[in-house]
Amino acid sequence: MEGKRTAWCFTGTYSKHTNFFIQITILFFILVNLPLNDAAFSMTILHTSDIHARFQEADKYAGTCSVEESDNGECYGGFARLASAIKDTRQAENNVVLLDAGDVFQGTLWFTVYKGRASSYFMNLLGYDAQAVGNHEFDIGPSALADYLRELNASAVSANMDVSQEPVLEDHYTPSVVLTVGGERIGVIGYVLPRTKKISRGTGKYAILYLISRF
Ligand SMILES: [Zn+2]
Fold first, then answer.
1. How distant, in Å, are the alpha carbons of 10, 97, 133, 138, 182 from that of 100?
2. What was the pLDDT predicted at 6?
3. Distance CA 69, CA 177 (A)
4. CB within 5 A of ion ligand 1: which residues?
5. Measured in angstroms, how far is the CA atom of residue 215 from the centroid of ligand 1?
6. Strands 44-48 and 96-100, sheet pairing
7. Could you give the CA distance from residue 196 to residue 164 in angstroms, rounded to a whole number?
8. Phi, psi (degrees; rounded to nearest 5) at 111
9. Which helix (H) or strand (E) holds 80?
10. b/e code 101-112 from CB counts within 10 Å (16+ = b)
11. Closest alpha carbon to 21 in 120, 108, 113
12. Pairing of strands 130-132, 96-100
């Protein structure tokens, strides 16, 4: 675009879980058409990943936070803290974008009992702009993922999935989404690690395309 320059911003994560989760596999790319004058536009990206149904605060072992531990300030995370941090940032900064890199499924009784419904409920409360589809989102099969994506208000993005053999997932996500932030067009592209099919507990016929072979 004339008078603009394009910048790529990588905001994904790749980390190892110590307990029962294998790996984080989701990546985000953000494509921004920036004005030539850098001072003309600034954006704050808030990014979460691997929430794993931990909507309540957790102890230092990522387990249940007891009342005593909570009273003593010995617990961490949870959506109440997250909501406060996001609210504060939105009030303090202009052009705030809220993204999640996936794996909102699996990890606590919230997921065991409510499947993806708890995740969509809480994610919608925080007002995410976009979410990449994580490997654990496939853990209980494509239909449960479709149910989650149907209820999710955020744009679900995944550029390297071929779900032609799992039509239940069609129309519930797009490869990318363009957000309008402060008058600028911000491209967000989702990517799921190709070996998701091997490490996910769920079954399905979906294929992960090797559109991006390495980083
Ligand atoms: Zn994870």
1. 13, 10, 9, 16, 20
2. 42
3. 41
4. 21, 24, 50, 103
5. 19
6. parallel
7. 17
8. -80, -40
9. helix 79-92
10. bbbbbbbbebbe
11. 108
12. parallel
Indicate yes or no: pTM above 0.85.
Answer: no
- 136 C-alpha to ligand 1 centroid (Å): 7
The three-class DSSP label of residue 207 is: strand
Instruction: Taking each helix axis as running N to C, give the angle between helix 142-151 and helix 116-126, from 0 to 180 degrees, rounded to the nearest 10.
Output: 30
CB 59 within 8 A of CB 40: no
Of 104, 49, 57, nearest to 81 by C-alpha is 57
The tokens describing 149, both together, are 């994506």
> Once rounded to an integer, what is the mean pLDDT over residues 89-111?
95
Cα(105) to ligand 1 centroid in Å equals 8
- What's the pLDDT tens digit per position in 147-182? 999 999 999 999 988 888 888 999 999 999 999 999
For ligand 1, the distance from its centroid to the CA atom of residue 33, given in whole angstroms, is 31
Kind plus residue range of the DSSP H or E element containing 79: helix 79-92
4 alpha carbon to ligand 1 midpoint, in Å? 36
Token representation of residue 32: 């921004």
- Cα(1) to centroid(ligand 1), Å: 37
